[in-house]
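Example pasted here:
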Amino acid sequence: MRPMKIGAISMLWLAALVGFVHGAELRVDHVTVAGRDLNDLQKRFAAAGIRTEYGGKHTNGLTQMALASFADGSYLELIAAQDPKAGAPSHYWGKFIDGNAGPCAWAITSTDIDADAKLYGGQVTAGGRKRPDGTGLSWRSLSIGQGIQGTFFPFLIQDVTPRELRAYPSGKPTLPGERGVAAVYIAVRNLETAIALYRTMFHLPEPVRSEDSSLGAHLATFMGSPIVLAAPAGGWLEQRVRAFGEAPCAFVLKGDGQGRVQWLPIEGMKIGVLREHDAASRPLPASGQPDKR
């Protein structure tokens, strides 16, 4: 199949329509952005128009988080060390946190995590955190495939306490104008190998292949799902794969449009929003950083 050449990802709105995993919805539960200092992350996202709410400390004693939740119940998590000076080197996302990696991991919702564990293999683990108002949250998660949890493949999560308590700290979406997560870009070393692994794991159809010169990537978009595999064509993406391995490298929110991706001016990371075609919507320049014109 001859790859298409595109300057921006015009197909993301179609790709973000509901996908399926063995008959169950491939629904984004949340996406995770990692950094060493949570206050710094929150300020940087606020400056770009993404307001977040403090969500509390995780029960692991290492990390804390803030989140921006969306109209469909999904959310963007900012995760950082409880002690920025000490970092979180022993956490499974420690190199992402201490390395200020930005996009780090993602999760999909499970409605029966014990059945999913039998299907995919792996061991279900318990997790939780305490909200600032004292409310205790608990969930069960499942890491699938090889590698670090939620990086190459998403991890699965099912709530024990009501999910709305986890997603909506103030009882409602943080950003009701953003409709959810449109796409998760996963940096991979070899596109064809990654395609085969994803198709086997999730019974996905053949993806649409494309070239994106602005991102410096060879892409494979699985239509009907949020998954976009991105193999480096050199530059920043190749450097990122060397530093952090195969893991999410960019997230795109659904926003209020069906047009081009507007990349937000958050230094060192790729967070975009789908907007209607206008002068403010432009592809990422070849440098890999948002154009600050």
User: Anything to note?
Assistant: The chain has seven helices and 18 strands.
